[in-house]
Amino acid sequence: MTDARDLVVAITGASGAPYALRLLQVVVRSGRTVHLTISPSGATVLREETGIVVDLDRFDPAALGDLGPGRVVYHHHQDFSAGIASGSFRTGGMVISPCSMSTLGAIAHGITTNLITRAADVHLKERRKLILVPRETPLSLIHLENMAAVTRAGAIVLPAMPGWYHRPESLADMIDFVVARICDGLDIDHDLGRRWGGERPT
Q1: What would the pLDDT profile of 176-202 be if each residue is shown by its tens digit?
Q2: Which helix (H) or strand (E) holds 71?
Q3: 3-class state of residue 130 by DSSP
Q4: Beta bridge partners of 156
Q5: How far apart are CA 199 and CA 123, in angstroms?
Q6: Strands 156-157 and 130-134
C-alpha cells in the first residue's frame, strides 16, 4: 500500500550533501515516509563532504545518523523494479538534492538510464511535484537551457542559494534556509527560519 504523502528523495553527484542530510532529517521527522535513492557519484560526495560512507548495495539508513521517527525506504539506483519507477506508485513529490548538471540534463531530455532519472520522468509525466536543487556556478548556456526545459515540463528548479535577510549566524542557518524553501515546495510544515516580515525564531 502506498501513501500519496510518501516522498522521493534522490542524492546525486553535485556539491551540497549537507543539504540532502538536513532535508532527510526534516522530512522524516515530519512523519513522512521517504523513498531514498543515491547515485554512485552522490555517495562519493557524501563521503567527501560529510565523512559518511554508504554501501549502495547493502544500504543501512542508520549510516546517515538519527533521522527521526519516520521511515526511510531505500532503492538501489539501478533497480527499475522499484515502485517509484512507475506512475501507479503514488507519492507527494520528489526532490533531487543536490542535483548534478548531468542528472538535470538527462531529465531535460527524457533520458532515463537509472532509477533517479526514471522516477523524475515519472513525476513529470504524472504532473507531480519535482524539485531539482542544483549547486553549480558559473552556469553555462547548456545548463540554463536545460533548466528552462525542465521548468517548461513542470519541474521546479530551486538552486542552493542561501539568502541573507534572515541574518544567518552559522553554516547550519544557511543550510536550513535552502531546506526550508524545499519544504515549502513540498507543503511540509517547519520552523527552520524567519520568513520575510516575520520574527526570527528563538
Answers
A1: 999 999 999 998 988 777 777 765 544
A2: strand 71-74
A3: strand
A4: 131
A5: 36
A6: parallel
